[in-house]
Write a structure and sequence with these properties.
By secondary structure, this protein is of the alpha+beta class. It is built from 15 helices and 18 strands. It has helices at 10-18, 29-49, 94-107, 136-139, 164-170, 187-201, 205-214, 261-271, 343-358, 396-399, 470-497, 503-531, 533-542, 546-574, 580-602, and strands spanning 53-60, 63-74, 79-80, 88-89, 222-223, 258-259, 297-298, 307-313, 316-323, 328-334, 380-384, 402-407, 410-414, 424-431, 434-437, 443-447, 450-453, 461-463. Strand 17 and strand 18 (461-463) form a beta hairpin. The chain is globular.
Length: 608
């Protein structure tokens, strides 16, 4: 966008020009501070994390005061990012449009936030918890109680996007907890809220939002139907193009929506108006921690109130942040996942640095340590509430555990931080199950077997029994793989050398060897899928990976061979096949195959 500088004097003009301010409505200290911080932080992020491009828009006092593009929209053509021209996929930032539309219909008396959603639907949400219906408010606070659903929710390019209502009716996820008890990020629930907009307004979701949310704000360059004019190319963490995962039936929750960043500036101005009900706290399971508005999350930093929403689809990451007490809003978008998927953290990092620059005298209050008894009662493995209980994506919980350990008078956690550079966090007890991050301003709270993290108001973590612990499962898998590897090499040799053992004994050994072959074939395919981390999200959302579908088939074959192993183990002891070390070895291999099958079944890896 062209620079428009009013005649505010040579000094101000020089500062603005130096800062490359593209659209300053005012060139005061706030604008200058934000501009300098954005330039410094984003430039460093693009270089360090290998993200091709970004754009930032800042609004203050009801005006857009800063907009700038960084890097390139396409690494091949080297097209510069232009905040008034370059489109980005919004991902879950779209959920804010859905919340706005719902609130408009609430204000018009057509929707009630506390009504049972079945009041408005043309299909029924299952009555899994009698007397505890899913209410409209639950959909916009991620407290509906639906399990997470990501497998196959995207639509391949060139394929028509399914209609919202029929898709929601046919793909209703299980309800796994009573509504209003815990938060668990929920795309289906927000898409359902969008369908309520469609039902009560008599217009399609896309038309309603276009005419009643976007058009009144002059957001002419926002598309809810995959508008691709001047679209930035999205890049995976390895630098390849993210080709899928941006389209799908759940438009109200995030896919299909593209916009230029300056359009989001218009939306931010409207969101900062006094009395905006979307910003009011609607849910928190612990009043000592930040909570949820309608879609918005509270993310305070250094004593400054920040209300925000992030968005992610493969290759694109963006963030809306409102600082109501400063009458300031920030929108930032990136067109790359970044090294170690750092693109998801970069946006939050930018806003934190802006807050620190605007309020350099504010610092987290030094927490006062209070004894909280034996801290070991909080130790253990925890699992996020956001996972699917019934499909193979449950395996993500095997490789991303949250652990809590107690030592001396502090807790240590792993797996909680969004910052890829931070693997461990240390926590000081404040009493009554509340903990403060050492050298930070985050908080943890424990409520029975539930862990709550101030950095993630739309999530909760539940403690696992010892036999559910991912580390135990990983140790079992490693041991099983080592034992099966031995059998894979040694048993064919033993079967040839010990031919006198008898036909059944040799068949048992060869059948066991078949179990090791199918197990390693399964493990190889599974490793192939997991090793391509850059494309993994796309394959899961599209459910289009032949390897991902073949692996469960091989695992079922392994189950069959394992049944033969169990039979062979019994017969080996009853009929005294082989010498004692041979029978023990066969039994150990059988137990290894059983362990592999049990762990795989627990994480639904037999299902495709």
């Amino acid at each position: 966008m062209k620079a428009i500088l009013t005649a505010l004097g040579g000094t101000v003009a020089a500062v603005a020009a130096c800062l490359c301010i593209a659209t300053p409505a005012r060139a005061d200290d706030t604008t200058t501070t934000v501009a300098r911080t954005a330039d410094r932080v984003i430039t460093a992020q693009l270089a360090k994390d290998h993200i091709p491009g970004a754009a930032v828009v800042v609004v203050a006092d009801g005006k857009q005061v800063y907009a700038k593009g960084y890097g390139v929209a396409d690494t091949g053509r080297r097209t510069p990012v232009d905040p008034a021209r370059t489109r980005f996929y919004l991902g879950s930032v779209t959920k804010l449009f859905t919340a706005t539309a719902v609130q408009q219909l609430v204000d018009a008396g057509k929707l009630d936030l506390d009504a049972d959603v079945n009041t408005y639907l043309d299909f029924r949400i299952r009555d899994s918890y009698p007397g505890r219906p899913v209410r409209v408010r639950n959909l916009l606070t991620h407290t509906s109680g639906f399990e997470d659903q990501v497998l196959g929710v995207a639509t391949p390019a060139g394929t028509p996007v399914p209609k919202l209502g029929p898709w929601l009716a046919q793909h209703q996820p299980a309800r796994v907890r009573p509504p209003g008890t815990l938060a668990s990020y929920d795309n289906y629930g927000v898409a359902l809220a969008g369908y309520l907009v469609q039902r009560v307004s008599g217009e399609s979701y896309e038309r309603y939002v276009q005419e009643h949310v976007l058009a009144p704000l002059g957001m002419r360059h926002t598309s809810l139907t995959n508008g691709t004019e001047h679209l930035a190319t999205g890049y995976r963490s390895d630098g390849t193009v993210a080709t899928g995962g941006q389209r799908g039936p759940l438009t109200p929750a995030g896919p299909n929506v593209t916009a230029v960043p300056t359009d989001l500036g218009r939306y931010l101005i409207e969101q900062l108006r006094p009395g905006n009900p979307l910003l009011h706290r609607q849910f928190t399971p612990d009043k000592r921690l930040p909570g949820m508005g309608l879609i918005y999350e509270e993310h305070p930093h250094d004593g400054t109130r920040v209300i925000a929403k992030d968005g992610d689809v493969p290759g694109y990451h963006d963030y809306v942040a409102l600082l109501p007490d400063d009458d300031l809003g920030i929108y930032v978008a990136y067109n790359g996942d970044g090294v170690d998927n750092s693109g998801g953290y970069a946006r939050r990092e930018l806003v934190d640095r802006v807050v620190e620059a605007l309020h350099p005298d504010r610092h987290p209050a030094t927490p006062t340590r209070h004894a909280d008894g034996d801290l070991s009662r909080y130790a253990g493995s925890y699992r996020t509430t956001r996972y699917n209980h019934h499909d193979l994506t449950k395996v993500t919980q095997l490789v991303s555990p949250v652990t809590v350990t107690a030592h001396d008078d502090e807790l240590t956690t792993t797996g909680l931080s969004d910052n890829p550079a931070v693997s461990e966090q240390h926590w000081i007890p404040l009493g009554h199950g509340l903990f403060a991050e050492r050298d930070g301003d985050a908080r943890l709270a424990f409520d029975g077997d539930v862990l709550l993290d101030s950095e993630s108001p739309s999530a909760a973590y539940q403690r696992l029994a010892w036999y559910q612990a991912p580390m135990l499962h990983l140790e079992l898998l490693i041991a099983a793989i080592l034992i099966l590897a031995y059998a894979l090499v040694a048993w064919p040799i033993a079967a040839i050398v010990q031919r006198r053992a008898g036909l059944l004994a040799n068949l048992a050994r060869w059948g066991g060897w078949g179990a090791t072959v199918s197990a390693f074939a399964f493990l190889t395919l599974f490793a192939m899928v997991m090793s391509d981390a850059a494309a993994l999200n796309e394959h899961i959302t599209l459910n289009d990976s032949a390897v991902l579908h073949a692996a469960p088939v091989l695992l079922r074959v392994t189950f069959g061979f394992t049944a033969l192993l169990l039979t062979g183990s019994v017969l080996a002891w009853v009929r005294r096949w082989w010498r004692l070390p041979g029978r023990i070895g066969y039994t150990v291999v059988t137990l290894a195959a059983v362990a592999l099958c049990l762990v795989s079944a627990y994480y639904n890896l037999m299902l495709d």
